[in-house]
Design a protein that fits this description.
Blueprint lengths: L7 H8 L3 H8 L7 H13 L6 H8 L4 E6 L5 H16 L3 E6 L4 H13 L4 E4 L9 H8 L4 E4 L10 E4 L1 H14 L5 E5 L5 H16 L9 E3 L7 H13 L6 E4 L2 H13 L9 E5 L13 E4 L2 H17 L9 E4 L2 E3 L16
Parallel strand pairs: 1-2, 1-3, 3-4, 4-5, 5-11, 6-7, 6-8, 8-9, 9-10
Antiparallel strand pairs: 10-12
Helix pairs in contact: 1-2, 5-12, 8-9, 10-11
Amino acid sequence: MKFETVTIKDIARALGLSTSTVSRALRGSYEISPETKKLVLEYAEKINYRPNPIALSLKERKSRSIGVVVSEIANTFFSQAINGIESIAYNRGYHVIISQSHESYEREKVTIQHLASRSVDGLLVSLSNETIDLSHLKQLHEKGLPVVFFDRITDEINTHKVTANNFKGAYDATQHLINKGFTRIAHITNSQNLSITRERLQGYQEALKKNNIPFDEKLVHYTLHGGMIYDEIEGEIKKMFSARQKPDAILTASDRVTTSCLTALKAAGKRIPEDISVIGFTNTNIAELFNPPLSAVRQPAFDMGQAATELLIQIIESKRPVTEFETRILDTELFTRESSEHPPIQPKAES
């Protein structure tokens, strides 16, 4: 059976009114008497009439919808950011259409083109691990489609951006490990293409430099798929522990990388923190329930989602072209737990 929506024509026919009278009554026009308004509104409520969003979008040239592109909804960080996005969008009368790139440039490109073809009013984008060429976004932005980047941002497009203080988060985490006595700290991170990768690497390097610990590029492990493919992380863990000089601690740089790394370490028979200490970027709410409880850098994901949405709606609703943009950097928070403790030195057995 084909679903058929109720239209203004149906209401007009039932009440013996013109469609223009019904339309004006539904809009609360002063031209329509209170009695007629009451009659129309009560009947519309009775038959569950709802305005056709497609018709409205054609009339107003706005769809009241926002497209959101993230790598993966199952990622705790992005699920929290989406909650922030929806909390603002809903209250401002916008619908949110969420799409996943799954860390694929091609999928990101097709998704963004599809959202644009569906006439979304604007885009909130967190770039995929594979994305280097931004021409698909540049073309839309140059044509006037509002775009705001969050978390994984770019300097190639002049627009609003919202991100975390990735430098400070990585610096604080690395400094914590150094304070615990670790000197060979491995860093497992995302693709080199991403802004968050570069910023977190810089924070890690700066903490080493401040403590006169030489930077060893062999201790940095990049993952093209950011932990979404477990075998990739497992391979890096095996490579790490087969090296002549093994690390004594690991800093992981994202939600997926962190959880996949913990799984790979367990599969390799490595105990935390007895064999290796770990601290990671993660927004999971159960980090303290891990065994052992996980030390972590937490990002203000919900607040980032809210801020990005507010900035996007400002562009969408501006009466004049927006030419001045800002980059908001929100603070991270470090939580230290047992996973980053230095294992006690075992006394040598007497001979």
